[in-house]
């Protein structure tokens, strides 16, 4: 094999020396590549970082700004976590910002780690570069620092930036989560268009109504999207027919929380008679038509027409006897709906306390009516159609919850939620105030939530108050129920004062998610009323609660949980992060404390603020984890 041309002009001894040197150099290069610090140990962290960014093609001013804001963070990492330091520098080198991104980084160097998280930094800069709402947008990205979340949030902000800013200005915590979903499917696109219409309308309404609709979207949004994808009839009718019908009912009865959050509300409204049923009975028919243990699907038209003809006794009979084969056979007879309703009422009167009490004569009565084979004879026997009172029930689950209690069966959280909504039972705010523990400025007022799952989990005393009121609420008319509710609420207040030492305010009920929304609105309002005081509050628990409810997947809050991060909301809507696990715990603790104690004055041009250092390190740490 011939020698390389460069060697042909050299003496043999020199050629051998040069060849030996090259062999040794090649042997050393893998080790040097594996340990880049061998070249950088003599340089400071900032000098090395700046040198590497410039070599990667960064513009000098942008590189200086990013290194300057992260000088303390880089120094700590280089000293204590060299591998992580070099990995973060590598990620920044890969960013290679173009002119637009470079100009933005000169002004906002704290976003370097966030831009490194994005697959399209230019797209993200176009959203962030508008001065209005910058603090709010950075808060969104601080809470969702994974590549997937950054992409979904960026897609949402491209379409709904103004809406999200307005929601944040109204103090709605977690509002960004309702927009974070894949947008490729037919159902998702329909949902997105509907979402825009709904929020545009509700942003004109009261804080309470805005909190309610946001809570509904957080709890039900994913289910609606899935159904839009899977059910073509639902897709065709949801925005045009079903949602307007629900809103008419909400306007009629002021019962948004009860109606909108029922999982079977859409099946009920999809019936030709659905709106009439809802208008007459509330959600009472749902248990008879769609829930587990309801009447068979082929009997739905029969039960629907009976409900439209009947009264309270009719509904009572339909509930009580639905598992009786002879009763079902009687309802299937070719009778008019009014005769069927009258028959149900007649049977209800025979066994008024069934199934709470045994009714030995029930089989005899059922067989007797079944023996009347002539429909005319049966109609004459049962008499005229019912004309008694009709009780509009806001919820339908209490019937089964009460039945389970009388049978000594375990009561689930859903059962308690049903009872609480039916009977309008309230619990003191301390039941839910734990979500806001650690707030810098805790509220002195109480936030009211319904009995629900939260109440059941945290206070065993509520069960004994729910049980008797639940029975009365299902049996009595509306006015009686209200009177009993007030009496029981007063007793509950007296007992809670002894147990908790707190006064209870009972204006209205909320679901747990809506309660968090209301609390966040109050907190946000107080933050804006403190003048120049450095006010903030810890929002970790409500944010985790809302995120889990909205996204229904624990990994979406993984970073907050993994780093055991505490989240603080500042007076100026900036978010401060304090992870208690991971890299640089002391650094985060110190910068968080400084950022939270900064005076609430007009922003200055002072460089390297504690907040910038804090949030920049948070994004860099997450970017490195996302691409490790």
Descriptive key words:
3-stranded antiparallel sheet; two-stranded antiparallel ribbon; 628 residues; mainly alpha
Number of strands: 5
Please give the radius of gyration in angstroms.
33 Å
- Would you tell me the overall average pLDDT? 76
Q: Largest sheet, order of strands side by side?
A: 3-4-5
Shape descriptor: elongated
Unreliable segments (pLDDT under 50, ≥5 consecutive)?
1-10, 29-35, 395-409, 416-509
Largest sheet: 3 strands, antiparallel
Category by helix and strand content: mainly alpha
What's the helical proportion of residues?
A: 55-70%
Short description:
The chain has 628 residues and is an all-alpha fold.
């Amino acid at each position: 094999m011939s020698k390389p041309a460069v060697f042909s002009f050299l003496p043999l001894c020199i050629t051998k020396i040069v060849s030996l040197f090259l062999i040794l150099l090649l042997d050393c290069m893998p080790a040097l590549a594996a340990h880049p610090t061998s070249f950088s140990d003599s340089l400071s962290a900032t000098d090395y970082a700046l040198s590497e960014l410039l070599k990667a093609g960064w513009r000098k001013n942008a590189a200086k700004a990013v290194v300057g804001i992260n000088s303390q963070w880089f120094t700590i990492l280089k000293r204590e976590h060299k591998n992580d330091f070099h990995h973060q520098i590598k990620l920044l080198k890969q960013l290679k910002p173009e002119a637009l991104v470079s100009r933005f980084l000169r002004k906002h160097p704290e976003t370097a780690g966030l831009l490194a998280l994005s697959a399209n930094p230019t797209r993200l800069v176009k959203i962030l570069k508008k001065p209005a709402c910058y603090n709010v947008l950075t808060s969104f990205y601080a809470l969702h620092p994974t590549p997937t979340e950054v992409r979904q949030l960026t897609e949402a902000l491209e379409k709904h930036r103004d809406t999200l800013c307005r929601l944040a200005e109204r103090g709605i915590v977690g509002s960004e989560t309702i927009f974070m979903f894949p947008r490729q499917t037919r159902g998702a696109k329909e949902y997105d268009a509907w979402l825009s219409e709904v929020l545009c309308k509700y942003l004109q309404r009261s804080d309470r109504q805005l909190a309610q609709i946001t809570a509904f979207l957080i709890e039900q949004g994913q289910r609606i999207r899935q159904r839009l994808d899977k059910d073509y009839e639902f897709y065709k009718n949801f925005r045009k027919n079903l949602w307007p019908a629900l809103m008419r009912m909400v306007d009629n009865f002021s019962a948004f929380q009860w109606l909108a959050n029922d999982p079977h509300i859409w099946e009920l409204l999809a019936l030709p008679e659905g709106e009439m049923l809802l208008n007459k009975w509330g959600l009472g028919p749902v248990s008879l038509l769609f829930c587990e243990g309801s009447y068979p699907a082929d009997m739905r038209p029969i039960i629907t027409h009976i409900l439209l003809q009947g009264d309270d006794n009719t509904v009572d009979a339909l509930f009580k006897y639905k598992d009786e084969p002879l009763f079902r056979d009687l309802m299937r007879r070719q009778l008019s709906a009014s005769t069927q309703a009258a028959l149900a009422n007649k049977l209800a009167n025979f066994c008024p306390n069934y199934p709470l009490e045994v009714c030995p004569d029930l089989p005899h009565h059922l067989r007797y009516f079944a023996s009347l084979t002539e429909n005319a004879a049966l109609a004459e026997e049962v008499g005229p159609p019912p004309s008694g009172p009709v009780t509009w029930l806001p919820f339908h689950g209490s019937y089964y919850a009460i039945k389970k209690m009388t049978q000594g069966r375990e009561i689930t959280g859903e059962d308690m939620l049903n009872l609480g909504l039916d009977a309008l039972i309230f619990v003191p705010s301390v039941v839910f105030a734990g979500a806001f523990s650690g707030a810098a400025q805790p509220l002195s007022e109480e936030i009211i939530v319904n009995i629900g799952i939260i109440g059941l989990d945290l206070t065993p005393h509520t069960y004994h108050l729910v049980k008797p009121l639940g029975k009365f609420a299902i049996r009595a008319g509306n006015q009686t129920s209200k009177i009993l509710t007030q009496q029981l609420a007063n007793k509950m207040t007296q007992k809670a004062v002894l147990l908790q030492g707190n006064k209870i305010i009972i204006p209205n009920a909320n679901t747990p998610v809506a309660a968090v929304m209301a609390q966040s609105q109050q907190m946000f309002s107080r933050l804006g009323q403190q003048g120049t005081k450095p006010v903030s509050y810890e929002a970790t628990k409500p944010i985790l609660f809302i995120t889990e409810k909205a996204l229904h997947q624990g990994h979406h809050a993984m970073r907050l949980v993994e780093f055991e991060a505490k989240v603080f909301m500042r007076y100026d809507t900036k978010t401060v992060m304090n992870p208690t696990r991971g890299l640089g715990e002391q650094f985060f603790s110190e910068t968080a404390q400084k950022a939270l104690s900064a005076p609430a004055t007009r922003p200055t041009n002072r460089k390297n603020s504690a907040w910038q250092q804090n949030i920049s390190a948070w994004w860099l740490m997450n970017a490195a984890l996302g691409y490790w």
